[in-house]
Amino acid sequence: MTSRxxxxxxxxxxxxxAILTAAAELVTELGYARLTIEAIAARAGxxxxxxxxxxxxxxxxxxxxxxxxxANEAGSLALPDTGxxxxxxxTLLRGTADELASPFLGSAGRALAAEVLTDPKLxxxxxxxxxxxxxxxxxxxxxxxxxxGQLAADADPDLAxxxxxxxxxxxxxxxxxxxxxxxxxxxxxxxxxxxxx
Amino acid sequence: MTSRxxxxxxxxxxxxxAILTAAAELVTELGYARLTIEAIAARAGxxxxxxxxxxxxxxxxxxxxxxxxxANEAGSLALPDTGxxxxxxxTLLRGTADELASPFLGSAGRALAAEVLTDPKLxxxxxxxxxxxxxxxxxxxxxxxxxxGQLAADADPDLAxxxxxxxxxxxxxxxxxxxxxxxxxxxxxxxxxxxxx
Lengths: 197, 197
Known about the structure:
Mean pLDDT of chain A: 89
Distance between the termini of chain A: 62 Å
Domain HTH tetR-type (chains A, B): 13-73
GO molecular function, one term (chains A, B): DNA-binding transcription factor activity
Organism (chains A, B): Kitasatospora gansuensis
Number of strands of chain A: 0
CATH superfamily of the largest domain in chain A: Tetracycline Repressor, domain 2
Structural class of chain A: mainly alpha
Oligomer: homodimer
Keywords (chains A, B): DNA-binding, Transcription, Transcription regulation
Number of helices of chain A: 9
Largest sheet of chain A: none
Radius of gyration of chain A: 19 Å
DNA-binding region (chains A, B): 36-55
């Protein structure tokens, strides 16, 4: 009957997953502004103090929840690396376009972006927990391409990630045009023209 | 004594200028959310109805005021055209970097960007009155360079303006790094590599 013996580590991990799932669901349903730690705790079936034991704030748990939604089964954020940087960046930006064009990011995501803009503490948490890891795995993929000779030896990964994500984000924020796979592909083609040897 | 004769057209133009100046000053001092049409009218020395005769909303007068701050003496938005597209784009993006790095856009501008994000009507006014004209003169400058053979014949002006402004805006919004002239120059160099024949 060992499988029925209470296992604190396993129970703890189940609670953590339940909290992340509840946070992801509730930010979609309510938007960031109306979301509360109490509501996350109630849906996850845990006490508020359990959430505060692991996360310092509402922003922290929400960004971890959004990051978990983008992570692989090992729980880490990883980009495809087939060896073909053009194909991999197309996969990446098509996925980003799909997310930005989804109903969730069309409303709750805009509200969250607006709050990040005007709350320096929330921006810090966003950079630390969600944007930073995303940009870092992207830079790693670009460095691998540079090492393989597919990008110029002096290609700057910091500038390159802004060139990849910036135009799409700008189009999304301002509603300048559709975010479809054709757009993602044309953007990748231009960015690679800028970065190739 | 003709110069003292009241001239309705001239008086009207003076009022319009006073309103635009007051709106630009007040949005800097108060931020967009706390700004009112009453406050603009009081500072400009006109009645509220005078403002509403020319502008349908607070957003409309603020965006016209910000556009006027970027216009030349003829009152129109125009980009430099020296014939050297690289030099002209450097001038353009250095100016954009200076504006984004200025104390005004560091606080009031972020608040305005956040409101544009979450208010579809305000976003429409922003696109119509400020962003649209800016993107259009930028596309015109790029089309001229394409005609002159400095850009590829198939360079897409819509995508090109997003490639120019998007990365800098992304860096600014997320506080990813400094917005200085060196950054503007490196960005222009990359974008031109993407767009050249």
